[in-house]
Amino acid sequence: QQQVKQSPQSLIVQKGGISIINCAYENTAFDYFPWYQQFPGKGPALLIAIRPDVSEKKEGRFTISFNKSAKQFSLHIMDSQPGDSATYFCAATAGNQFYFGTGTSLTVIP
Amino acid sequence: EAQVTQNPRYLITVTGKKLTVTCSQNMNHEYMSWYRQDPGLGLRQIYYSMNVEVTDKGDVPEGYKVSRKEKRNFPLILESPSPNQTSLYFCASSLRGQTQYFGPGTRLLVL
């Protein structure tokens, strides 16, 4: 059973556009929600993270929106660039256990 | 340079032949974890360790063993590998509750 549901599976966006990836969860014990970026042949790297007491967090072109009541959170990439082309994973943690979404392959077309 | 290293990076083996994938971190992190990554399934946690001699099962521990005898090392052991353990494996480390740093991955093929 997938603890964190992620959509879409793949996304194609024009350069300069906005990329939006969504995740949903059920376990209210989750207390940390990171997003990871993974390039081919590399391990995932933390992009941005949020805790459930905050509804939004912005770092540069990347923003997490968090809706605690709906148990959903999303990643917005503003002004998407070809260098953003990668696979993105949302995750949620409860204590020492991490649960990842299934990933979104983002392609930004020049 | 702060990093998590894994060895080997690529491994082809046969069913039933015991193997060990090593993981080492130089950041003095308490927390270490192993994941497998499979297409369409994302990353799934196999085992994690909160400190030396403290380990616990993740989401998919069957067929795997781990040990944490030193803070910097966290090897993953497959006592009797099977084809369904063919996967891409990642080790990660962090200070407790903080950002996880991932290794470069080990691609395993079990024939």
Account of the 3D structure:
The complex is a heterodimer of chains A (110) and B (111). Chain A is mostly beta strands and 110 residues long. Chain A is 0% helix and 57% strand. Chain A has strands at 4-7, 10-14, 19-25, 33-38, 45-50, 56-59, 62-67, 72-77, 86-94, 97-100, 104-109. In chain A, strands 2, 4, 5, 9, 10 and 11 form a six-stranded mixed beta sheet that branches. Chain B is mainly β and 111 residues long. In chain B, β9 and β10 form a beta hairpin. The interface between A and B is medium-sized, with 23 and 25 residues.
Q: What does the overall shape of chain A look like?
A: globular
Residue share in helices of chain B?
under 10%
Q: Order of helices and strands of chain A, N to C?
A: EEEEEEEEEEE
Helix content of chain A: under 10%
Strand content of chain A: over 45%
Oligomer: heterodimer
Query: What is the N-to-C succession of helices and strands of chain B?
Result: EEEEEEEEEEE
Give the biggest sheet of chain A: 6 strands, mixed
What overall geometry of chain B do the principal axes of the alpha carbons give? globular
Q: Determine the N-to-C terminus distance of chain B.
A: 36 Å
Average pLDDT score of chain B: 95
Q: How can the largest sheet of chain B be summarized?
A: 7 strands, mixed
Number of DSSP-assigned strands of chain A? 11
Q: Mean pLDDT across all residues of chain A, rounded? A: 95
Q: What is the CA–CA distance across the termini of chain A?
A: 37 Å
Structural class of chain A: mainly beta
Total beta-strand segments of chain B: 11
- What is the C-alpha radius of gyration of chain A, as a whole number of Å? 13 Å
Biggest interface and its residues per chain? Answer: A-B, 23 and 25 residues
- Given helix and strand content, the structural type of chain B is mainly beta
